[in-house]
C-alpha cells in the first residue's frame, strides 16, 4: 500500500497571524513539503492543477520535474490533471517526458476540476465536461499505446499520421487514476479501462465514498479486469495531529473556521464526525485511517491533504514529522488486514513487468477497451445510461 500527501496549492491567509504567503513563498513551500515527504518515507507526492488565483498549482509538470530532480524515490503524481481542458496531445508529450526525467516515478490522476471558468479560458464548453473527459482520454491512451495515430473527434482538430514524442518510458505509459468526489461517470470510466479510481474522500460522508467505490469495483469486475477485490482504489483524507488531541483541536480550529472551502459552515466537531477529517492525537489518526478499510475494502493508495487553509510551512513540516512517526504502524496494520490476492499499488516497474517489457505493449486493459474510440464512449450500452443519469 502506498501512503502520501497531496496539495491543491491554495494561497490562503493564516487566520492566526494575518499573514498571506506570496506566490513565490507558496511555490517554494510546495517543493520543501515534497522533499520532506520523501525524507519521512512516504511513497507519493501529488499536486493538483488550477489556473486561477488563489492557487499556484498551474503547470504541474514543471513543478514535478523540479521536485523530481531533488528526490530519488518518491512517486510524483498529479492530484488532478484537467483532461477536459488540456489538449491530450500535450498531456501525452509532457508526462512521457516527465517519465524519462524521473526514471518512471510518475503517474496521473485524471479529473474535470472544480473551477467552472477554466472551460472558457481554454476554449471549452463546460456543458460538454463529461464528453470531453471521455473523448480526450480515449485519444490520450491511443497516443501512448500506438506509435502512429490517425484520429478524428468532436472537440479538436484531426490527427493524421501523428507520433507523440517522446514515447513512454520502456513502452509503458504512466499509470492513470481517475479522481472524483461526486461523479459516478468517472468511476465508470475508470472501471471500463481497468484504471485506478481515486475517491477524494475529504468532504462527503463515508456512505457516499462507500457507494462510489462499490460502483467502481462492481463495474471493474463487469468489464472483465478481475474480481472486485482486485480493482485499484485510492482514497484522500485530511488530518491535523498533535501529541495531545486537545492541543490539536485548539490549534487547528481557527484554520478550520476560516478555511475557504468549509469555513463559516459546520462546526469542527460536526465536520469531523460527518467526514474523514481527523483532528487529534496520532493514535486517533491511526484508528480513523484504519477504519476506512471497513467501508471500501482493501485499497492501494492513501493520500492526505495537510498544507491547506493557511497553515504555515513550519506547521506543515511538523505534521509530516508526526505522519512519519505513525507510518510504520499504518503499514503494518494494513498489511495484517489485507486479504490474499489483493494487488499491490502499481508502479512503473510492476507495469513494465506486466507488459513483459514489450515496447508496444498495451497498458492497463486488454482488447478494445485499451484503445476506446470517441464515437463509442466507453464501449458498453449501459454506460450511455450512466452518462444520461439513468443509473
From TrEMBL:
<keyword id="KW-0560">Oxidoreductase</keyword>
<dbReference type="InterPro" id="IPR011251">
    <property type="entry name" value="Luciferase-like_dom"/>
</dbReference>
<dbReference type="InterPro" id="IPR036661">
    <property type="entry name" value="Luciferase-like_sf"/>
</dbReference>
<dbReference type="Pfam" id="PF00296">
    <property type="entry name" value="Bac_luciferase"/>
</dbReference>
<protein>
    <submittedName>
        <fullName>LLM class flavin-dependent oxidoreductase</fullName>
    </submittedName>
</protein>
<feature type="domain" description="Luciferase-like">
    <location>
        <begin position="1"/>
        <end position="295"/>
    </location>
</feature>
<dbReference type="InterPro" id="IPR023934">
    <property type="entry name" value="LLM_FMN-dep_put"/>
</dbReference>
<keyword id="KW-0503">Monooxygenase</keyword>
<dbReference type="InterPro" id="IPR050766">
    <property type="entry name" value="Bact_Lucif_Oxidored"/>
</dbReference>
Amino acid at each position: 500500500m502506498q501512503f502520501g500527501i497531496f496539495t491543491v496549492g491554495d494561497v490562503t491567509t493564516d487566520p492566526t497571524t494575518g499573514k498571506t504567503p506570496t506566490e513565490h513563498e507558496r511555490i517554494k513551500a510546495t517543493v520543501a513539503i515534497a522533499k520532506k515527504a520523501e525524507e519521512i518515507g512516504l511513497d507519493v507526492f501529488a499536486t493538483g492543477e488550477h489556473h486561477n488565483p488563489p492557487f499556484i498549482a498551474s503547470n504541474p509538470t514543471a513543478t514535478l520535474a523540479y521536485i523530481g530532480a531533488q528526490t530519488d524515490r518518491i512517486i510524483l503524481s498529479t492530484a488532478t490533471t484537467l483532461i477536459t481542458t488540456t489538449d491530450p496531445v500535450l498531456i501525452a508529450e509532457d508526462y512521457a517526458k516527465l517519465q524519462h526525467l524521473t526514471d518512471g516515478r510518475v503517474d496521473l490522476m485524471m479529473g474535470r476540476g472544480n473551477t467552472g471558468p477554466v472551460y472558457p479560458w481554454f476554449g471549452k464548453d463546460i456543458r460538454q465536461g463529461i464528453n470531453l473527459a471521455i473523448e480526450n482520454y480515449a485519444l490520450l491512451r491511443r497516443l501512448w499505446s500506438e506509435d502512429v495515430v490517425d484520429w478524428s473527434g468532436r472537440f479538436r482538430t484531426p490527427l493524421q499520421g501523428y507520433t507523440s514524442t517522446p514515447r513512454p518510458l520502456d513502452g509503458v505509459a504512466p499509470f492513470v487514476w481517475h479522481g472524483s468526489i461526486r461523479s459516478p461517470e468517472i468511476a465508470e470510466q475508470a472501471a471500463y479501462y481497468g484504471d485506478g479510481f481515486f475517491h477524494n474522500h475529504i468532504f462527503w460522508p463515508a456512505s457516499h465514498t462507500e457507494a462510489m467505490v462499490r460502483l467502481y469495483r462492481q463495474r471493474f469486475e463487469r468489464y472483465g479486469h478481475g474480481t472486485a477485490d482486485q480493482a485499484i482504489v485510492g482514497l484522500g483524507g485530511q488530518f491535523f495531529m498533535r501529541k495531545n488531541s486537545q492541543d490539536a483541536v485548539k490549534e487547528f480550529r481557527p484554520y478550520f473556521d476560516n478555511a475557504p472551502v468549509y469555513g463559516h459552515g459546520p462546526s469542527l466537531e460536526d465536520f469531523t464526525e460527518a467526514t474523514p477529517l481527523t483532528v487529534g492525537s496520532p493514535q486517533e489518526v491511526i484508528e480513523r485511517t484504519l477504519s476506512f478499510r471497513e467501508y471500501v475494502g482493501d485499497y492501494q493508495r492513501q493520500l492526505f491533504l495537510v498544507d491547506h487553509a493557511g497553515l504555515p510551512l513550519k506547521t506543515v513540516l511538523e505534521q509530516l514529522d508526526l505522519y512519519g512517526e505513525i507510518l510504520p504502524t499504518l503499514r503494518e496494520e494494513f498489511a495484517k488486514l489485507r486479504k490474499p490476492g489483493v494487488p499491490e499499488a502499481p508502479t512503473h516497474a510492476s507495469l513494465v513487468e506486466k507488459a513483459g517489457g514489450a515496447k508496444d505493449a498495451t497498458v492497463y486493459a486488454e482488447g478494445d477497451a485499451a484503445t476506446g474510440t470517441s464515437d463509442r464512449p466507453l464501449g458498453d450500452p449501459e454506460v450511455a445510461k450512466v452518462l444520461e443519469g439513468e443509473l
